[in-house]
C-alpha cells in the first residue's frame, strides 16, 4: 500500500508538472497526505494502547 501511494503521488506530480492535469497541488499530494495521516493515526493508537496497558 505504501509503495502504491508513493507511486500515485509521483505520477500526479509529473502529470501536474507536464501540464496534463490542472488540479490544485493539494489534490496532487493527497495520496501522500492520506498516507501520513494513516501512519500518524496508527502510531497514536499504539501509544494510547501502550499507555493503557502499562
Could you explain how this protein is built, in words?
With 54 residues, the chain is mainly alpha-helical. It has 3 helices and no strands. The longest helix is centred in the C-terminal third of the chain and has 24 residues. The two termini are 31 Å apart. The model has no long low-confidence stretch (mean pLDDT 94).
Q: Please state the structural category.
A: mainly alpha
In terms of DSSP E residues, the strand content is under 5%
Unreliable segments of 5+ consecutive residues = none
Distance between the termini: 31 Å
Strand count, sense and closure of the main sheet?
none
Helix fraction? over 70%
Tally of strands: 0
Write down the secondary-structure element order: HHH
Using the CA coordinates, give the radius of gyration.
16 Å
What is the strand and helix layout of this fold?
Blueprint: H1 2-17, H2 25-28, H3 30-53
At a glance:
The protein is an all-alpha fold and 54 residues long. It has helices spanning 2-17, 25-28, 30-53.
Amino acid at each position: 500500500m505504501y509503495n502504491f501511494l508513493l507511486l500515485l503521488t509521483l505520477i500526479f506530480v509529473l502529470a501536474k508538472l507536464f501540464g496534463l492535469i490542472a488540479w490544485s497541488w493539494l489534490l496532487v499530494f493527497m495520496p501522500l497526505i492520506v498516507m501520513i495521516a494513516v501512519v500518524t493515526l496508527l502510531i497514536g493508537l499504539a501509544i494510547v494502547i501502550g499507555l493503557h496497558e502499562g
